[in-house]
Design goal:
Layout: H1 3-14, H2 22-27, H3 35-41, H4 48-51, E1 62-65, E2 73-76, E3 79-80, H5 82-86, H6 91-94, E4 98-103, E5 109-113, H7 114-130, E6 139-142, H8 148-159, E7 163-165, H9 172-181, E8 186-190, E9 192-195, E10 198-201, H10 203-211, E11 218-222, E12 237-239, H11 240-246, E13 257-258, E14 262-268, E15 276-281, H12 283-295, E16 304-307, H13 314-326, E17 330-334, H14 345-353, E18 357-360, H15 362-371, H16 374-377, E19 386-390, H17 396-406, E20 413-416, E21 450-453, E22 465-470, E23 480-481, H18 485-492, E24 510-514, E25 520-525, E26 529-532, E27 535-538, H19 539-547, E28 552-562, E29 566-575, H20 583-596, E30 605-608, H21 622-630, H22 644-654
The structure holds 5'-O-[(S)-ethoxy(hydroxy)phosphoryl]adenosine.
Length: 655
């Protein structure tokens, strides 16, 4: 590096705050700082601003009904249809503009204009109807990043059938659990897809999942790989291409849905072994993701916006499909991995499509950093106007690298904190207004109430770690856990609410600290959820997979620090009498986890131990196991029933 450059680099590393570039502010969708007060003073009516981004059939009569809190209702009596909002209403002005630019891993591309997307969504909606799908039937999708996934989602939305998308990387068992829990009788899936150039079989995995579902399931199979790859069809399966061809030109009137009617279900990990079915509604969710796409991602119809997440997670639902399409912009969808065929694949796509906004995860940014700046430097990234990150805390070094080497020091970065349950972004700077502080997400968005409290629910002072809480409802919030109101109450509302006083506080299970200026730094989960490469996994789910393996007596899973993944799975295992903690058992444990959840949950290390550190009341001390995994100095062991085991385990890990 030239001396000058070294100096600049050093200055950048020291800089602690960055103002939004003037060129960005001038054109930002939201640039008036007064928006924070406006929301505050006129709350909850201020949320009409979000609802106004949509084209309602019938107007709502109340913005917020809190009479049955925390079962809040937003935009009551309003009616709309999400597929109409994302397609039909753009046809007149933008029918020939691109809705989805799809890039396949092998380099093939597909472009859908709004008119084309509208046509195929209608045809598939007609096909679903003909197969018997009725309003409120849950349709499951088990699909990778191919255009038929958003098409199927929008077709469901059109006929009022909630979708439940299961990430394609999840295992057959995970699919079966989710389909059973949702009583879902329809599955849209595909033959396979490409990963790092190889065709990956998917249909056999889907079939295996269906073997684990007790009720009958009608299947629809997209042929992604073509004739060269045969795929096993069941008697109840239909070919997607045939169904759509048979409905050529069909039109399906969008069903008028109530604002509170379910748009979709999304299963996510929680504290117990059972995934939670998070329920999102049509009016509140859609206005919220539309509003945050407008205000935070600065999406405009003429943009080419790219969220490099997978639609199998909430980020893809909100910010590849519903947010950007509701605003009539062009949304880029990429099938594959960022390093195939070369490590500049992302930058090649940015250059080829003149991408204006890029929204990705810190785990990806850490990988880009590791690969080196020569990859982005090969490409012209000057079309970029805004960068975003989501999914886990971003460390200041990675933030600055992203700012400099991808954003060319001229794009604001929005570090957006939110969750599957919140539907959309909650804490982040507004890119046209707020000073950015690397590592800190920023203040709560206008209209969002967030506080950092101690275990008693009392606010903690600036700079001290505490628990993040949300003390006001918001339109994008989950309404309940599917068919499980009780768990909804106990998981999110029990900890800090005072029901007698009708005071409801949502607890997201994250730790955080707040600065004097109100900026919030999210520190990570405080429950048994870990975050591996931005993927949310339940340690209990992994533990229950491990104890299901023959020869395992007990298991404790924790997240240990990992340079690229953020966190990695560490499994501490006690073997059953008569079994050895050997390579064979280790391999079977890894296989057991992959079968129950998927390769993303694969343990980084399996550590066999004769005992686990336990408190006198018999609880496993996970904190100590984390310290061991991280090679940190061990915390207090005095409250342990068996302090001597700690050193034994630490020595084993150190070996
Ligand atoms: C974490 C993903 C720090 C957090 C949208 C949260 C973050 C969990 C950030 C939700 C961020 C998400 N900074 N941590 N900007 N964004 N998280 O449900 O722990 O897959 O609770 O939703 O990711 O993960 P989920």
């Amino acid at each position: 590096m030239a001396e000058e450059e070294v100096e600049l680099e050093a200055r950048l590393q020291e800089q602690e705050s960055f103002d939004p570039p003037e060129s960005f502010v001038e054109q930002a969708n939201v640039s008036e700082p007064a928006i924070y007060e406006e929301f505050e003073e006129n709350w909850p009516e201020s949320w009409e601003r979000a609802a106004d981004l949509l084209d309602w059939y019938d107007d709502y009569d109340t913005v917020l009904d809190d009479s049955d809190a925390p079962f809040y209702k937003w935009f009551k009596e309003g009616t709309l249809n999400a597929s109409h909002e994302c397609l039909d209403r753009h046809l007149d002005d933008r029918g020939d503009e691109v809705a989805i630019e799809w890039v396949g891993e092998l380099g093939e591309t597909r472009t859908y204009t709004y008119a084309e997307l509208h046509r195929e969504v209608n045809e598939f909606a007609a096909a679903l109807r003909e197969l018997g799908v009725e309003e409120d039937d849950v349709v499951t999708m088990y699909m990778p990043m191919i255009p038929e996934l958003p098409i199927a989602m929008l077709a469901c939305a059109r006929i009022g059938a909630p979708h439940s998308v299961v990430f394609a990387g999840f295992s057959a068992d995970a699919l079966a659990t989710r389909m059973t829990s949702a009583d879902s009788e329809y599955l849209v899936t595909c033959d396979g897809y490409y990963r790092r150039g190889d065709a990956l079989e998917h249909k056999a995995k889907a079939n295996e999942g269906l073997d684990g579902v007790d009720h009958d399931v009608t299947g629809i199979v997209v042929d992604r790989l073509g004739d060269e790859y045969d795929h096993p069809m069941r008697d109840d399966d239909h070919d997607y291409g045939d169904l759509v061809a048979a409905q050529a030109g069909a039109e399906v009137e969008p069903v008028e849905r109530g604002a509170e009617d379910m748009l979709f279900l999304m299963y996510t990990s929680g504290t117990t072994g059972q995934p939670k079915g998070v329920k999102h509604t049509t009016g509140g969710y859609l206005s919220y993701v539309s509003w945050t796409s407008h205000a935070v991602l600065d999406v405009k119809p003429e943009d080419t916006y790219w969220c490099a997440a997978d639609i199998g997670w909430i980020t893809g639902h909100s910010y590849i499909v519903y947010g950007p399409l509701s605003l009539g912009t062009t949304s880029v969808m990429y099938e594959g991995t960022p390093d195939y065929p070369e490590k500049d694949r992302m930058w090649e796509i940015v250059e080829d499509y003149d991408v204006t906004q890029l929204y990705t995860a810190p785990t990806a940014i850490r990988a880009f950093m590791k690969w080196g700046k020569q990859y982005p430097e090969k490409r012209d990234l000057s079309s970029l106007r805004l960068l975003g990150t989501v999914g886990e805390p971003i460390n200041p070094r990675a933030w600055k690298w992203y700012y400099k080497h991808i954003g060319g020091e001229s794009c604001p970065i929005v570090d957006t904190w939110w969750q599957t349950e919140t539907g959309g972004m909650m804490i982040t700077t507004l890119p046209g207004i707020g000073t950015m502080k690397p590592g800190s997400a920023g203040p709560p968005l206008p209209g969002i109430g967030a506080e950092i409290v101690d275990t008693n629910g009392d606010e903690v002072g600036a700079g001290r770690a505490g628990y993040l809480t949300v003390d006001k409802p918001w339109p994008g919030m989950l309404r309940t856990l599917y068919k499980n109101d009780e768990r909804f109450l106990s998981e999110y509302w029990e900890e800090y609410s005072d029901p007698d006083a009708d005071e409801w506080v949502y607890f997201p299970e994250d730790g955080a600290k707040i600065d004097d200026d109100g900026y919030i730094t999210v520190l990570g989960r405080v429950d048994d959820v870990i975050n591996v490469s931005g993927h949310r996994l339940g340690t209990m789910e992994i533990e229950s997979a491990i104890v299901g393996v023959e020869g395992v007596a007990e298991a404790a899973v924790v997240g240990g620090d990992h340079d690229l993944k953020g966190e990695a799975v560490y499994a501490y295992v006690i073997t059953e009498d008569g079994y050895e903690g050997d390579a064979d058992l280790e391999a079977r444990i890894i296989e057991g986890v992959e079968d129950a959840i998927g390769p993303i949950a694969r343990p980084e290390a399996v550590i066999f131990t004769p005992e686990l550190p336990k408190t006198r009341s018999g609880k496993i001390m996970r904190r100590l196991l984390e310290d061991i995994a991280n090679g940190d100095e061990l915390g207090d062991t005095s409250t342990l029933r068996n302090p001597e085991v700690v050193e034994d385990i630490a020595n084993k890990v150190g070996e």
